[in-house]
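Example S7 (structure tokens).
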């Protein structure tokens, strides 16, 4: 927690040495130092229905640049795909980086953020915390901008269509105590098209904070399908911010599985800036144990004839809490735009706490907008029907849950993500 007594400016020398040691360009160092000086001047982002000012989100990372004392065995997290377009990172280190020659020849860049800063500095500078998210947006983004210690850069050039998914696997190294401050920048140039898939895991049981910022910038006519499964550990307190920015006729479709085991804020923001641009967000979540998870989905229409859809389904077990905030905002001047949302929560325990909080902010007349929200328990008639057919109660609950989440999961375009979400859901339910 940031307090007035905590002087982050005291880290200026350490940050300068850290940035210089990594060989970062001067503009990156200046961005870090300016963000550092602004942390205490900014406010925390407002997350409806959640007080989190005491969450340990501001854990300063190790700035020595030394390798972690303990390394992660990655075999439990990945399957061998020798020809895949893939980046695998454990903690702050990149352990696998493969990209087919055919994509390299087309100008696709898929590498860790530090390599990108050295080899493609000007290209990274165009978009890194300049378009989708600014460093001074709030206290958490400023902290992230100052202390970012690893990440990924994906660039797909103008008119390039990538047929196979580009995959990233990020494994938090909680075998050691170190804050996980990961930055992912996805930059889709004019009329490019691709699928990007990312997965987050935790190895180890140390108590750590995770501050993860993902920026997706889709230039004119670009089509990005973004899929993710988040499975960070029970002892990880996480702030995810995935932010999209669309130019004219571009689209960003999100499919997110929020399956973490620790307290989590998933802040999902898309600004539809260009006329005719769109975003379709599908999110599923399971909260269990004593964890708190909040999914805060915000789609803002600035351009004319934009379309923003939010579909969120979640299940709560045990004493856990799950909140869906769905915010559809149509700005004055965004004529012909459409904002739709649906948030539904299913509770499987008398001690569970759930909330579906739909918000529509409409500043223009010639638009279409609507929402649906519900919070409830398993239908006893459904349970009775299944159990009367000889199905055990635990198995009946699993069938009901899979049916409840299935309407969102089935709409996710990538089969690999659908399958992984189903496997993760089964694992969570059987481990109760």
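Recovered sequence:
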């Amino acid at each position: 927690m940031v307090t007035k007594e905590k002087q982050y400016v005291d880290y200026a020398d350490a940050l300068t040495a850290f940035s210089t040691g990594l060989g970062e360009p001067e503009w990156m160092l200046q961005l870090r130092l300016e963000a550092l000086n602004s942390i205490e001047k900014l406010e925390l982002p407002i997350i409806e229905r959640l007080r989190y000012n005491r969450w340990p989100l501001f854990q300063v990372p190790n700035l020595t640049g030394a390798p972690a004392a303990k390394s992660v065995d990655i075999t439990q997290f990945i399957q061998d795909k020798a020809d895949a377009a893939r980046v695998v990172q454990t903690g702050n280190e990149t352990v696998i980086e493969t990209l087919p020659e055919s994509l390299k020849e087309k100008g696709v860049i898929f590498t860790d953020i530090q390599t990108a800063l050295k080899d493609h500095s000007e290209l990274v500078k165009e978009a890194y915390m300049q378009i989708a998210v600014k460093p001074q947006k709030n206290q958490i983004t400023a902290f992230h901008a100052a202390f970012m210690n690893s990440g990924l850069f994906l660039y797909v050039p103008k008119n390039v269509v990538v047929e196979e998914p580009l995959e990233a696997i990020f494994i938090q190294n909680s075998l050691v105590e170190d804050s996980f401050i990961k930055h992912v920048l996805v930059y889709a140039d004019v009329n490019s098209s691709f699928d990007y898939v990312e997965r987050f895991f935790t190895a180890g049981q140390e108590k750590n904070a995770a501050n993860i910022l993902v920026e997706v910038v889709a230039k004119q006519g670009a089509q990005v399908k973004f899929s993710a499964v988040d499975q960070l550990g029970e002892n990880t307190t996480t702030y995810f911010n995935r932010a999209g920015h669309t130019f004219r006729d571009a689209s960003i479709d999100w499919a997110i599985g929020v399956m973490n085991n620790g307290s989590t804020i998933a802040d999902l923001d898309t600004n539809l800036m260009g006329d005719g641009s769109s975003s379709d967000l599908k999110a599923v979540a399971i909260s269990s144990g004593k964890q708190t998870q909040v999914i805060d989905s915000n789609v803002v229409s600035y351009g004319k004839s934009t379309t923003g859809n939010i579909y969120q389904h979640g299940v709560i077990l045990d004493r856990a809490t799950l909140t869906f905030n769905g915010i559809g905002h149509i700005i004055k001047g965004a004529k012909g735009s459409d904002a739709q949302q649906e948030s539904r929560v299913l509770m499987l325990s008398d001690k569970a706490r759930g909330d579906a909080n739909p918000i529509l902010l409409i500043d223009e007349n010639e638009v279409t907008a609507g929402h649906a929200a519900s919070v409830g328990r398993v239908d006893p008639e459904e349970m009775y029907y299944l159990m009367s057919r000889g199905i055990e109660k635990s198995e009946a609950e699993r069938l009901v849950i899979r049916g409840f989440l299935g309407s969102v999961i089935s709409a996710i375009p990538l089969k690999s993500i659908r399958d992984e979400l189903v496997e993760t859901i089964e694992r969570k339910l059987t481990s109760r």
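Notes on this example. Confidence is low (pLDDT under 50) at residues 1-5.
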